[in-house]
Amino acid sequence: MRVPLSWLREYVDVPTEATPEDILAALVSVGFEEEEVIRFELSGPVVVGRVLSFEAEPQKNGKTIRWCQVDVGEAEPRGIVCGAGNFFEGDKVVVSLPGAVLPGPFPISARKTYGHVSDGMIASARELGLGEEHSGILRLAELGLDPEPGVDAIALLGLDDVAVDVNVTPDRGYAMSIRGIAREYSHATGAAFRDPAVRDDLGSGSGFSVSVDDPAPIRGRGGVTEFVTRVVRGVDPSRPTPPWMIARLALAGIRSISLLVDITNYVMLELGGPIHGYDLSKLTGGITVRRAREGETLETLDGQVRRLHAEDLLITDESGPIGLAGVMGGAKTEIGDATTDVLIEAAVFDTVSIARTARRHKLPSEASRRFERGVDPLLPAASAQRVVDLMVELAGGTADALGSALGASYAPHPIALPARFVQGLVGVDYAASRIAETLTLIGCEVVETAEGWTVAPPSWRPDLTDKWTLAEEVARIDGVDKIPSVLPTPPSGRGLTPAQQGRRRVANALAAAGFVETPSFPFASQEQNDLHGSASGESLPAVRLANALDGQTPFLRRSLVPGLLQTAHRNVARGLTDLALFEVGAVFLPRPGVEYGTSSVPPLAVRPDDATLAELNASIPPQPRHVALLLAGAVSTKQPGRDAEPAGLEVALDAVRVIAAAAGVEIEVVQARRAALHPGRTGALTVAGADGERTEVGYVGELLPAVAADADLPGRVTVAELDLDAILALAGERVTVASLSTFPAATQDVSLVVDAALPAAELRRTLVEGAGELLESIRLVDDYRGAGVPDGAKSLTFALRFRASDRTLTAAEASEAKLAGVALAADRHGATLRE
Asked: How many structural domains is the chain composed of?
C-alpha cells in the first residue's frame, strides 16, 4: 500500500519534522513490512511560464517546431524550442529551466537545436511524471490553475509530495487504505487519529430499485451484504482533475483517467471501500445482483468480452449483465465524456466469490484485492457520501434524492477472552488494564466479566475471530520487541536417534567417497514406479496425489532411481558426463488391498488420544527411507600414461561396501534379475540378521541400454538402491569401535574349484565360518572358468588375511586356519583345491 504523506497527515497528526523513514519505522513497529520510499523523480528549477509569442518553423524532416518566447518571472523572457502544437499565446505552462532534472533521469540544459538555443523545456504531463499523456504540453488552465509566471511548479502541482510503501498481509485488508494506515500510525505513535468514515452529515437516497437474487445466501444476502446507491446529476465530465488529486493518485500507483473516475479511485484509496460509477442514462431499469446464467457474456471496461461462469456474481439491469461484481465494471454503462448523471455504487461483496471470479477471469484489480480481503460493512454509506461531495465540489454536480440502501444490520460476534490467557500465550506479564486498553485502542468494545473479558471486534477487523487473534493484537500494539527471547533448556541425554545417526553416517561416508548428494522431488509416473519400483516390472499400488504439481508425474515414488536419472540427464545436457550421485530419501510403498487416507482429521484444539493416533498412522502408507546411487562416465579421467577408468559395476559394489561399513553390517551379493537392469550384471544385496537368516535389502546393477537411452544417458549407467531403514534395523547395536592390533598379519590365498552354480558369497561364508576368529578379512580376487577347470565348474580365488590380537601368528597357524575353512567347504560344497 502506497501512502502519500500529505494525504496521511489529513487524518492523523504526523509531526512536520517526521521523515518518510520515521513513518516507515513507526508502521514496522506495529507489524507492517517496509518496502520503499516513493518520490517524484524531478528537481528544480521547474516553474510556471506564460507563452508570450511563438513562431511556427517547418523543418526539412517534415516536422514543425515552435520558437517560443516564454515569461518565467525573470527580467527577460526565455527562448525555448517546442515541438508540441496544442498551446496558444497567453497560456500558462510548466517550464523546466536549465539545471532541472526530470524523471528518467533527464537533465535539462540550454542547448542548440533547430537553429536556436533552447533555454529550457516546456513539459508535458508524462515528462513531469503526472501521467502517460505526452502528445502535448501541460496547459495549467486545463487543470483550473492560473498562477503567476515564476511560481514554483513542483509545489503547485503537488510534485513535492512523498509516499511510503508498506506490505499489507492478506488478513489486514483494512490497512489497504489511507484510513487504515492512519489508524495504525496512531496506534504506533499515539498521534491523534481522525476517522474520515465517521460523519454526521451522511446522506441517503431512495426510489432506485436494487434487488438480490442469489441462490447461495450468505448472512441472508447471498454474495452481497451491503449495497448503497446515490445519484449526482449535472456533472461536467470535461472538468480537469485537480493537480493534488493527480499527484496523490500517481504516488499511490494509479494513473489519472478522468475527473469522475479519478474521484471513485481516490475514495477507494482513502477509505478502503471500492466504488463504482455508472452513467445513469445508460442503465435500463433498476439493478439486480445475481449469479451468471449459462451462455452469458460481458464486455468489461478493458474491452474484452468474457464468457461468464455460473459462480460469477454479476451486477445486472433489465438489459442483462453490466458488471462483474467487485472486480470490474462493464463497458455498456461506462462513464464517458457525455456523462451528466452518475449512479454511485458502494457495496460489500462475499470475499470468496470475488476472489474466485478474479482468478477465474485472470482479472486482478484494486477493487478485487480489497473485497477478497474483507471490506468494512459499515463503510458503504460513508464512501458513497464522500464521492457525492467530491463530484459536487469538483465536477459541478448536484446531489439527488434518488438512491437506495440495501444491507443486513451489522452485529459483531463477541469473543470470550479469559484472564491470564494473553500473558500465558505471549510470555509477557501484561497488566489487565493494559490488555483492555490495547483492545479498546484498536476499536474493540471490551466488557469485563468474572472470567476475563468479552470483546466485540470493530466492523473493519474481520480477522479478529478468536482469543488467539486478540492476544496477537495485544502483543503487536504493545510492541513485539518487548516479548523476551528465551531459548528453552534442552533436557540432557537427548540428541539424534540411532536411526538418524546411522543415516547421517551413510550419507557422510558416500560424500567422502566422492559421491554428490542430489535430493529430488518425490514424484513419479506410473511407468517409472512399475519399472524401478518392483523386481519384475509388474504394476504395484502407488499413492496418487490429489493435486499433483506435474500431471505427468502424479504418483509418489516407489524408488529413488527415477529422480537420480532425471538429475543425471540435466547434468549430461550441460556437459557434465562423469557422474557419481546419491540420494537418501523416503519412498512410498502402499500395501496391496489397503485403502489409505480414510481416517478423519481430529479438531485442531483437541489433543488426539492413542487410539486416534494409531488410526491416523494406519491411514498412511509405509514410507521407508532408501539410499540410492548412480554412476555414469568415468571415475578417473584419462591422464598421461593412464587410460580413463570407467564407472562400472565394480565401483558401484565398492560404494555398496562403503554403505555397509557405515551402517555396521556385511552385505553379500548374489546374482539376480530386475526389470530395468541387465540380466547378467545385476545382483541382489542381502544382510544377515541376528538369527543368521539373510534378508534382501536392495540391489545393484547396470541399466539396460534401452532404459539408459530413454533417460537420454549415453554409455553404461550403474545404479544401486538399498532399504536404509531395514539395514540399520538389522545392524542393531553392532556398530562398535575395534582396537587396531599392533601385531603383523599373515596373508594367504586359496583357490577352490566348485560347481559353477554355487554363489561366490555362499562359499565365502563357509570359508569364514571354518577359518574361525583368526581370519581378519577375506576378499574374492578371481573367478576363472576355462582350461584346467572341469566343464560346469569354476575356480574361485580368495585372498585371506589372518591376525591375532595378542601375538604374532606363525605360518603354520595361518595355514591351519585356512585348511579348516577349506575342509568345511569340501564337506558342504564338494570344493577341491585347484592345483
From this structure: 6
